[in-house]
Amino acid sequence: MKKLSKRVNSIPVSQTLAMAAKARELKSEGKDIIGLSLGEPDFNTPDFIKEAAIKAINDNYNSYTPVDGYQDLKEAICRKFERDNQIKYTPNQIVVSTGAKQSLANVISALVDVGDEVILPAPFWVSYEAMVLLNEGVPMIIETNIDSDFKITPEQLEAAITPKTKLIVFNSPNNPSGSIYTEAEFRAIAKVLEKYPDIYVISDEIYEHIIYEGKTFSFAAIDSMFDRTITVNGVAKAFAMTGWRIGYIGAPEWIAKACTKMQGQSTSGANCIAQKATIAAVDADPSKIKYMVDEFERRREIIYNLLSEIDGFKLNMPKGAFYIFPDVSSYFGKTIAGHKIENASDFSMLLLQEANVATVTGDAFGTPSCIRISYAASEENIREAIARIKKLLS
Q: Quick check: 158 and 140 in contact, CB under 8 A?
């Protein structure tokens, strides 16, 4: 009898990866699929980063790395945190991992016990909930909507806190909505958390450099929250290094040590060449990647304007990341091209099967009235994809 563990059966398949796999399957059958489901920049890694990797190869970096990362990389990350985020970490508070996803998994595993509640403001990145469930924690979802720009209020947070609350996860700029919490909004939330000293905060800042309005603010820069905040970041999105698989945390030293312990029994240290390349990335002034951000901003305007022409799409203007998260609930209950649309999953599948456009259902992000559309794609593909959607829905 084939019997998987309750643990693996308790978690859902990643909907972003599932949709990408379904799109690839249809492509292999000869369908002309336009993929707007994955959050992956369509740029090449900048040359100065590739040159650092080539130098590391020629310098014969090929051995196991320290579990928590090379010392010179951790020092570079500390410089980056001080320069960009006004946070002072020391190298013993830094842990380098195989992608920010592993960084998050380490932290959640290190902090969450059976029955601990983890507050997830929705929409949230798909893997947060699965990571909590894997550790037998209880996801506590705070719902938002497009009218609040998909951000929670201090009052909502206060109402969600119970004696079992252990952790809250913020992601700003947000995947999937592109929303950004302002400094004032984070400080108001911190005022609530100051009353609950046993609650910790994960601040996922992987999209910090991909912003179009205002600026990002790091939760750990609030003095009263520094000792209770784990800042998660990486180089995948801003530096077009998704396949290089380097993420990192800045955290209280006792949490950093726990994450090193976790990692020492799973993957050990991250890739040696990628770590050396990451030093060049985090040491670089953010202006070196502005050309990518400028192009994403141009595409944001294009996709927003095109979607605005489709009746039934309710939009907010994303201020960061490279996703737009329209509310499509006006279509629920309707039948389109023979498909009965009951929810966002049905709507997303309709677009894939009838318009050959891959998106992701908002159900995966805890917001079932929306779908996520990535504009980390060429202008040509964006225009063609939205034209197909418009034609189908008209």
A: no
